[in-house]
Amino acid sequence: MLDVVKTRAHPRRTVLNRVAAIPAVGYLLLLCWQNGWLPKPRGNATVLLSDGRLLQCRLADRTQRTMYLGLFEPRETRLLDKLLDPEDTVIDVGAHIGWFTTVAARAVGDAGQVVACEPYPFNATMLKYNLAQNNCQNVRVVESALGDRFGTLTLATAGDSGGVTALDWARSGRVEVPMTTLDEVAAGLGAVTLIKVDVEGWEAHVLRGAARTLAHTKYVLIEINPQALRKAGSSPDEIFCLLRKAGFTNLVTLAESGFRRLHRTAVSNALAMR
Question: pTM surpassing 0.85?
Answer without folding.
Answer: yes
